[in-house]
Amino acid sequence: MIEFRPPRILDASALVELFSGHPGVMQVLDEASDDGYFVVVPTLAIAEAQAVIGAASDHWYHVLSVPALRILDLSAPVAIEVGRIAGPRLRNHPVQAPLIGPLMTAQVLYEAKMLSAAIGTTVPEAYGGHEVAVHSLN
Questions:
Q1: Which residues pair with 9 in a beta bridge?
Q2: Which domain of life is it from (predicted)?
Q3: Rounded CA gap, 9 and 112, in Å?
Q4: Number of H helices, E strands in the chain
Q5: Are the beta carbons of 115 and 132 closer than 8 angstroms?
Q6: Which domains are present in the chain?
Q7: 10 Å Cβ neighbour count for 107?
Q8: Which runs of E-coded beta strand occur in 7-107?
Q9: Do 97 and 26 contact (CB within 8 A), yes or no?
Q10: Distance between CA 77 and CA 14 in Å, rounded?
């Protein structure tokens, strides 16, 4: 019998840690490679991480070429849903700490729900109040 293992999804905070070789993030990637599942990265998470670390493009290409990683582009239908999820946060909490921007967080939540994925993050409180699995990388 084949066991279904849902993918992991990395947010901007996890991507920043990936650049520094964070042991928890590296373990997630190693397990994905060894066990044959994927780690997914929403494009808004890439954008928000880049805004914080300012890495050279070739560094991103190297990091994102890890075989177990899959990039989730922000299509128009997904962008509409992400905007819907982010709306209350934008209206009620207009000032956000770095790495938990409302649009990125909303895309991560949306993709995690669609894929039944666990979110890898160093800011688990960003996903409170939502029915998703969160894997703290702290």
A1: 40, 119
A2: Bacteria
A3: 7
A4: 6, 5
A5: no
A6: 8-136 (3.40.50.1010)
A7: 28
A8: 8-10, 39-42, 69-72
A9: no
A10: 25
